[in-house]
Amino acid sequence: MIGCGAIAYEHLPFLARSPSALPVALCDQSPAMMAAAAAAFDLKVNLYANAEEMLLAERPDVVHVLTPPQTHSRLVRAALDTDAHVICEKPMTGSADETAALIEAARNAGKLLVESRNLLFNDSIIDLRARIQAGALGDVRECDILLSLDFLAGPFGDLNLNGPSTGLPGGAVQDFLPHLVYLFQALTGSEAADSVMGEYINRSGNRRAGFDFCDVLVRSGPTRGRLRVAADVEPSAFRIAVRGTLASIETDLYNPYIRLEGPPYVGKTYALGQIRGGFGLVKSGADNLRNKVRQHGTMHGMPRMLEAIYTAIREGNEPPITAREMMATAELTDQIVALGQRP
Q1: What is the pLDDT of residues 151-182, one digit of tens each?
Q2: Is the per-residue pLDDT at 268 higher than 60?
Q3: Do residues 51 and 78 lie in contact, with contact meaning Cβ atoms separated by under 8 Å?
Q4: What's the burial of 294, exposed, middle or buried (CB within 10 Å: 0-12/13-18/19+)?
Q5: What sign has the CA pseudo-torsion 42, 48, 53, 55?
């Protein structure tokens, strides 16, 4: 594993406990962060400050690249060059061209390269996709996704730190944007966008963030989407609403619930659906309280995703996140970022 920052603590529970993986080494420029990560999961592994040295010495079968996005391309290529499969945190690169180049490098090496899409493996998203695929919503026509999160209060906006918050052309927003894009594509079945319009701006004036606000409309065939990232509204939420020709459904990935509006509770019986939905919200509140105690949080889909990837590697099958899907997300992300005007 290369990179022992916060996201490493979402990968390490799987690596430490799954029979599918045997950790052999951690790598980070900070010895303290490496030691802390190893101690937190009682890992008896070798520690390296240099990724290339680790790859040559250990020759791992799989490498997790969990470093800042601007370092991904070099590290992914180095891992592929030592005959390793690669799991890379999102965003894998800053552009579709860079993503295509890495996918081609993996293909030439005969190895899997998978960009993390852990939210697809969360309980509520699995539920939404199952209902959509079963036809409960009819034909999907709209998908709205809102991420409201004060990320400027952390490293993305801390003006005491030097330089830009990320090495991405889309600034801080682009660090989160792939989540919204791949969820939109997965829930609607869309890939390429016919049109993208809206705002991609710096609303706060915080220079370190680069861009801190996104509100765009996407049209793909008969499907419409609205994708928003905002750092200046509360409460923190990751709201998703999908509307079809028969019914609509919504959830929140931070405090999950499922609210379905449609048959049989329509017309005069709509109020009965509201009452039923109210009881559902009460149950969701109790479930969320229990899940917070159990630390079953927003990242709980990560072990499922990693297990699916490791199974694909072991069995020689197509990974749960394909090269085509990664390219579709990178291309739509590029279209959205292109709307931006750096302050």
Answers
A1: 999 999 999 888 778 889 999 999 999 999 99
A2: yes
A3: yes
A4: exposed
A5: positive
Closest CA to 301 of 40, 13, 22, 68: 13
Structure tokens at 18: 């799954």
Residue 256 — very low, low, confident or very high, per pLDDT cuts 50/70/90?
A: very high
pLDDT, tens digit (0-9, with 9 covering 90-100), for 185-196: 999 999 999 999
Q: How far apart are CA 220 and CA 179, in angstroms?
A: 18
- Answer whether residue 341 shows pLDDT above 90: no
Phi and psi at residue 259, in whole multiples of 5°?
-120, 115
- Cα torsion 89, 168, 147, 289: sign: positive
Q: Within a 13 Å sphere around the CA of 168, how many CA atoms are in the beta-carbon half? A: 32
Q: Looking up tokens 């619930």, which residue turns up?
A: 257
Residue type, 245: T
Q: By the 8 A CB rule, do 332 and 194 touch?
A: no
Q: What is the DSSP annotation of 96-132?
A: HHHHHHHHHHHHHHT--EEE--GGGGSHHHHHHHHHH
> Does an H or E element contain 171, and which?
helix 171-188
Instruction: Give the predicted TM-score (pTM) of the model.
Output: 0.96
pLDDT at position 28 over 60: yes
Q: Is the CB of residue 76 less than 8 Å from the CB of residue 92?
A: yes
**Cα–Cα distances in Å, from 123 out to 28, 119, 158, 188, 214?**
32, 9, 33, 18, 26
